[in-house]
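Troubleshooting log. The previous run stalled partway through. Resubmitting the same two chains, unchanged.
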Amino acid sequence: MNDVIKLLTNHRSIRKYSEQPVTDEQLESIISAAQGASTSSNMQAYSIIRVTDQDVRQRLSVLADNYSYVMECPVFLVWCADLYRLRQAYQQHGDPEQGYFGTMENLIVATVDATLAAQNAAVAAESMGMGIVYIGGIRTNIAEVAELLKLPKYVYPVFGMCIGYPDQAPGLRPRLPREAILHENTYQPDKLPAPLADYDHTMKEYITRRTDGKRTSTWSEDMANKLKAPARMHMLRFLESQGFLEDQEDLDK
Amino acid sequence: MNDVIKLLTNHRSIRKYSEQPVTDEQLESIISAAQGASTSSNMQAYSIIRVTDQDVRQRLSVLADNYSYVMECPVFLVWCADLYRLRQAYQQHGDPEQGYFGTMENLIVATVDATLAAQNAAVAAESMGMGIVYIGGIRTNIAEVAELLKLPKYVYPVFGMCIGYPDQAPGLRPRLPREAILHENTYQPDKLPAPLADYDHTMKEYITRRTDGKRTSTWSEDMANKLKAPARMHMLRFLESQGFLEDQEDLDK
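Second attempt completed without errors. Output:
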C-alpha cells in the first residue's frame, strides 16, 4: 500500500479547525487539483464559489443546518453543478433555447463533474495535512442558498466543503464489508444479508465505544431512522425551477 | 506542489493498455481507497460491479458506444448508485414501502456517493502507475446495461471505468482558466466572456496541434455541437422506472 492509498484509506471528516490559515498558494493547488479531475466530454460542468464574506458565511451556516464549522472553517467552498457556462459558450454559435441543456442526463453529468472535481480537491487538501468535511446541509434550504450566492438558472449547489488544519483527531469509521459493495458480473442481492449483519455488529460496537455507551444503534437502525421520514423533498421542484429538466419536458410529454 | 497534487494535476484519460495485469491485491487497494471516500451520513449508497466474464464484457462494450477499450482493458468496473442495499437494511426495521427512497435528494446522494468513491479509486490506480478512463457511454443503452448486469430496482449504473497500465502517453488537455470556474461569494456571470474566449483560443491551438490540423474547432464550438442535439433523453424515464423518483410523486402530485 503506497502513501497515496494510505492517504485515501485514512480519510475522516474534520469539523474542528486550528487557527493555522490556508494560504492562497495552497488554495490554488487545491483548485488546480480539482480541475485536473476527469470531466465528461471536457464539459467541465461545475463551478466553485469560495465564501470569504463573513456575513454570507454566517447566513450560509444557519441555512446549512446551523453547523458552526461552516462559519468557523478557514476555507469554505460551495461546489455547484453548472450548465449556465455551457449556455454562455453555446450562445456564440446559436440560440441556447434551441439546444438541450435541461435534461436528466445533463443533470447527472454536471453533478458528477462537480463531485469528481471536489473529491480531487479533498484529496489535495488532505495531502497537505488539512482536513475537510462535505456539507450536504446546503441542500436543506437550497433555494435560499442559491439566492444568497446569486446562482443563475442552470446552476445548483451540490454540496459545500469546509477546509482547514484539523484541531481534532476522530477515529476512522468502519465501512461496509467489501463483499457488500463489490459484485462480479451481476448484482447479487442474495449475498447481502450476511455482510450487512456483520456490519451492524461492527458499527454497534464502534458507536458504543465512541459515545461511551450513549448511543448503541446499529447501522441498519440508523439508516431506517434516517429514511423513514421525507427529507429535502423540495429538491425536484427546485431543480425544475432552475431549468435542469426543462428540455426533458419538451420531448417527454 | 507535493507528489499527490502533482499526480492529481497530471491526470489524462488512458484508452490503450499494456499486457501488464492488475493483480487482485492491487484491485483490493483500489476498492479500499474507494471505500475510504466521504459518504453522505454513512449511507454508502453505491455499488461496484466488476465485469470479468468476457461475454458480458463484449456485450457491454457494444452497448457502451462500441468502445473497444471496454473490452480490452484489464479491469472494468461499473459504478452504480445504489438505494437497494439501504432498502434491505431498512427492511429489518420496517416496511421499505413506508420509507422514502425514491426522491431527487436520494438520487443525488447516491450519484455523489458513487462518484466520490470512483474518483478515489481512479487516484489510487494512478498512484500505482495505472491509467483509467471513465465510460459515460454505459448510459447510452442504460436499460440494456442494467438488464445485463441484473441490477435490481433502486440501482442505476452511473458510469463505467477502465483500469490498466497505459500503452499510450496522451498530452495533458488544457482546462478552463481558473477564473472561469472559481467565484468569490457570489456567482459572477459578467466575468465569464474573457476567460471563455481565452480558452477557445487555447483549445483551438491544442486541438490543431494534436490532430495535425485535422480538427481546428474551439471549445465553445465543440460544446455547441454536442448540445444542439438531444442526448440520452431516456435517462429520466429509466430512473423513474427504476424507482428513483417514486416517493417524490406521492408528495408532489
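Takeaways: The two ends of chain A are 52 Å apart (CA to CA). Residues 3-171+230-252 of chain A form a domain with the NADH Oxidase fold (CATH 3.40.109.10).
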